[in-house]
Amino acid sequence: MMVPVIDLHGHIGAWPQYGWDDDLPGLVASMDRAGVDAVCLFYMTQSDAPRGNDVTAEACRRSPGRFIGFAFVTPHYPEEMVPELERCFDRLDMRGIKLYPRYTKLPLTAPEWQPIFAFANERGVPLIIHAPPDPFLGLAQQYPRASWIIAHAGGGPEGRAKSVQVARQVPNIFLEICSSSRNLGSIEQLVRGAGADRVLYGSDVALFSPALQLGRIMTADLTPEEKRLVVGGNALRLLGEDVLQAR
Amino acid sequence: MPVDVSVPFRPAVPVFDGHAALGRRYDRRADLDTPEDLLAEMDRCGIERALVYHPHAAHYSTREGNALLMELVAGQPRLVPQFVANPVFDDPEAFGEKMRAAGVRSVRFCPKTNLYPFVRWVAGRWLDWLRENGLALWLPADEVDLTAAYDTLSAYQELPVVLVAPTYGQVSTVLPLMGALPHLHLDLSRWDVYEGPIRARDSFGAERLLYGSNLPEFEPGSYLFHLHRCGFSEAELRAICGGNLERLLGEW
User: Fold this and answer.
1) What domains, with CATH codes, occur in chain A?
2) Which residues of A touch B221 (CB under 8 A)?
3) Does residue B50 belong to any structural domain of this protein?
């Protein structure tokens, strides 16, 4: 059963000290070797968010159908946030939002983030956020039309257990898998705990390789239907069936 | 390469895992700690053999831990024992006799855990002995200061050394270190670096790369899947998945 594979966690930009490259043709080649159809792409290491979003949009334009743009905005420049999100969704055809509270020193519960959450809720779009799992439950209840994706599913075993716990309580929390903690049974823990319809393949490319994190799913003790949902079926449901079409 | 979720992944070449632990830990219960459990997980992922050391030998007593390991691998030819040595307190000649008797062909050092610096005035006698006997050394990347590793190992260019489980956070040191020490081999078990196996192959050659699982801490299948999607030739894949390890263990 050949299925679409959509990577929910991809970076553009460069961070050489971690071996992170910004070679776009190389990234497409890497996706092809792995069997990844499309990557959700964001430029979260660019402090000038509009500039980074332009780079993301250009990558999507240069490789039609292979990248799905996600907007990045920073609460250090609150006056930019909502106008930039409007630009990303209305003019650059982006489909989600990436946030990284740890880099801002602002916890996810800080009021500075609220305009972003309200925007996501109003538009009914997904947010993928690298943060500890605890605050997600309250936010998912407060903003029920947004889809809340816990990046890295909380990280190691304890974070994964906590992520499962919050995901079970509301229908709009999803768990994205990529992690350097490739513990035994980690994917099975997420799928058995939260349900196969809540777990999303992500790789952290170009920090990690798309094939490595995909391999965690492909070699896990899951049924073919569970694998289908995790590698791409759930992402299509969240992002829209048209995301794989060249736009 | 398309993804078929209805076909379970199996390695296309024989796999000999170069980095796994076997036995109970003192600090917590390991996910797998018996030969039977370890072999079952190896079977599930298509791993034929594994080079194993005992956590007790790394954390506490080399003498007791290595003996425990030999009890566990008795009658299990798929589990190939590796001894941990402490160069401060283990005499290489006497230790070597035990290795010969047990059929052990490689040694692991754990400098940080065993509280000694990895420098010639501590480890030199042992490194001389390993080199003279054509034995390979496994050196975990989180057990050694990599600057000290360069300073010490650069004097032992004929000694094969496996740098065990370096992480993506060490890439800016490990890549130059691999370039500076041609006898250094890279265990891939935690080498999550973006396209890390391909870039290492291109820079250093497939003959210096070893598949390792990091069992029982990590699941072993994902990296094998990754290696099968790197575009390697069959010869390169065979070398990385086990051939290089066979060569390093050699005959003694």
Assistant:
1) 6-241 (3.20.20.140)
2) 215-216, 218-220
3) yes
Per-residue pLDDT of chain A (247 residues; tens, 9 = 90+): 899 999 999 999 999 999 888 899 999 999 999 999 999 999 988 889 999 999 999 999 999 999 999 999 999 999 999 999 999 999 999 999 999 998 888 999 999 999 999 999 999 999 999 999 999 999 999 999 999 999 999 999 999 999 999 999 999 999 999 999 999 999 999 999 999 999 999 999 999 999 999 999 999 999 999 999 999 999 999 999 898 886 5
Query: Residue B7 falls within a domain, yes or no?
Result: no
How far apart CA A130 and CA A181 sit, in angstroms, is 15
Name the residue among A1, A207, A208 with its Cβ closest to that of B5. Answer: A1
Cα separation of B85 and B61, whole Å?
9
pTM equals: 0.97
Q: State the residue for tokens 């010490």.
A: B152
Distance from CA of B106 to the nearest CA of A (A): 26
| Cβ separation B192–A211 shorter than 8 A | no
CA nearest B129: which of B146, B110, B109? Answer: B109
A227 touches chain B (CB under 8 A): yes
CATH number for the domain spanning B91: value is 3.20.20.140
Q: For the sheet with B79-81, list strands across it.
A: B16-21, B49-53, B79-81
Q: Do A231 and B219 touch (CB under 8 A)?
A: no
E strand or H helix at B121, and its extent? helix B120-133
Chain B interface disruption, residue of A37, A219, A230, A244, most B CBs within 10 A: A219
The H or E element spanning position B96 is helix B92-102
CB pairs under 8 A between A and B: 124
Establish if B4 belongs to a structural domain. no
Q: Residue B233 falls within a domain, yes or no?
A: yes
How far apart, in whole angstroms, are the C-alpha atoms of residue B69 and residue A116? 56
Cα–Cα distance, A69 to A123 (Å, whole number):
16
ipTM of the complex: 0.96
Residue B140, amino acid: P
Radius of gyration of the CA atoms of chain B, in A: 17
> Could B1 and A224 be called an inter-chain contact, meaning their C-beta atoms sit closer than 8 Å?
no
Residue numbers of the domain that contains B158 = 16-249
